[in-house]
Amino acid sequence: MLSKHNSRLSVLLGAAFLMATSAIGPGFLTQTTVFTASLQASFGFVILISILLDIGVQLNIWRIIVASGKKAPEIANILFPGTGHFLSVLIVLGGLIFNIGNIAGAGLGLNVLLGIPVSTGALISAVIAIVLFVIKDALRAMDTFSKWLGILMIILTLYVVYTAHPPLGLALQKSIVPDTMNVTAIITLVGGTVGGYITFSGAHRLLDAGVKGKESMAQTTRGAVTGIGIASVMRILLFLAALGVVMQGLPIAQDNPPASMFKQAAGITGYKIFGLVMWSAAITSVVGSAYTSVSFLRTMHVAADANAKAVTIVFIAISGAIFLLTGNPVTILIAAGAVNGMILPVSLLIMLLAIHKPAIAGTYKHPWILTVLGVIVMLIMGWMSVKTIAALMHL
After folding, report:
1. What are the subcellular locations of this protein (predicted)?
2. Contact by Cβ (8 Å): 61, 344
3. CATH at residue 241
4. Distance CA 33, CA 250 (A)
5. Which of 2, 113, 160, 355 has the fewest CB within 10 Å, making it most exposed?
């Protein structure tokens, strides 16, 4: 009985860390540093609002998927035939954009850590990610890989916070009463944490482990909140480290903001720590993006389902090839969060409509308070997406 409990706990933690480390990618590091440099202590308010929105999204989507026992595209196709394929296309495109940045970030991390060319580092990292999916017990290896690298990132960033000496009182004050609020920052953070494929990663992982049905709701809720908690801890630590640097009046380079921030905070040691954190963040996000994007593709065609490992390898290879042909990872990383934030209202609307259909929900009754919270988040993110699109059109 204890073994079964430990196994279930391991799966829940694996799903939580898969989701969190999928979110904590190069874009996560870049977005947090860039927005802290521009908003300073008031960025704490953006983080607080984004965490509340993240929880509203994740609790809804994880519970809906696990309760129905079906993956998101299957749910959408039952709701309206063809909708699942439409959702899959959105998620896979968003995942691909993210993964190009993830591969770039992995190459950049190894460049800082080992001094090898970024392109070589990207290639090595892509091969490591592919090997992880090729081995026999890929899902268990993915869980372990995500957990340990996630813990490592938090410990290393905590050290950098210590060396940066951020003004904690000011950060707390402005997190509640900000001097300014940036809508684009909120949608980018939410998009980078639970947008696009990310929030589905942990839920689909639970289904693959056999966790489903309304009897699994308590565990699912704990897993969902844990995932957001892990990602939020990392976001707050990065914010504090960057704030310490900014408030000292030290410059943050535009070509690689997080690397500059780590170096300003802790010298050459901080720079090397950045390399390890960046690589860890990037490689775990490559794994999460590939796994989740392919889980959507598998519902579109029997050939993709039967050859899931091969499709995953091709997905990673395409991401790496596009990066090597394009370049500029910083622009890609900021854009990825915004794009996935725009996908979020659509996917959340589909899930909320579906769970109130008996053919999907069965005997499960989705809590009305979660439905209301989900609708509020969907409307807020939809409004912010419209504003962001309008702003981009005027650039």
Report:
1. Membrane
2. no
3. 1.20.1740.10
4. 13
5. 2
| Total number of residues shown for the chain | 395
Radius of gyration (C-alpha) of the chain in whole angstroms: 20
- Encoded tokens for 103: 């591969």
Q: How many other CB atoms sit within 10 Å of the CB of residue 19?
A: 32
Neighbours of 309 (CB within 10 A): 13
CB 364 within 8 A of CB 132: no
| Alpha-carbon distances of 272 from 25, 63, 133, 151, 366, rounded to whole Å | 17, 40, 28, 17, 47
Domain that holds residue 277: 2-393
pLDDT tens by residue, 259-307: 999 999 999 999 999 999 999 989 988 988 899 999 999 888 888 888 8
Amino acid letter for position 15: A
* CA dist 311 → 64, 132, 196, 316 (Å): 27, 14, 19, 9
Helices (H), the chain: 2-23, 26-39, 43-68, 72-79, 83-114, 118-134, 138-164, 168-176, 183-194, 198-208, 217-247, 257-297, 302-306, 308-326, 329-354, 358-361, 368-393
How many whole angstroms separate alpha carbon 112 and alpha carbon 183? 33
DSSP letters, 120-163, are HHHHHHHHHHHHHHHSTTHHHHHHHHHHHHHHHHHHHHHHHHHH
Our CA dihedral for 158, 161, 163, 169, rounded to 10 degrees, sits at -130
Instruction: Using the structure block, give the residue that is written with the tokens 């912010």.
Output: 384
Look at the block and give the residue holding tokens 């308010």. 45
Q: How far is CA 190 from CA 56, 225, 342, in A?
A: 11, 15, 10
Residue 340 binned pLDDT confidence (cut-offs 50, 70, 90): low
- Rounded distance between C-alpha atoms, residue 241 and residue 255, angstroms: 18
CB environment 46-56: b (16+ within 10 A), e (fewer): bbebbbebbbb
- The closest alpha carbon to 241, from 174, 152, 157, belongs to 157
Specify the number of domains making up the chain. Answer: 1
Which of 20-34, 59-73, 335-349 is the least confident region? 335-349
pLDDT at 72 over 90: yes
- CA dist 16 and 232 (Å) reads 12
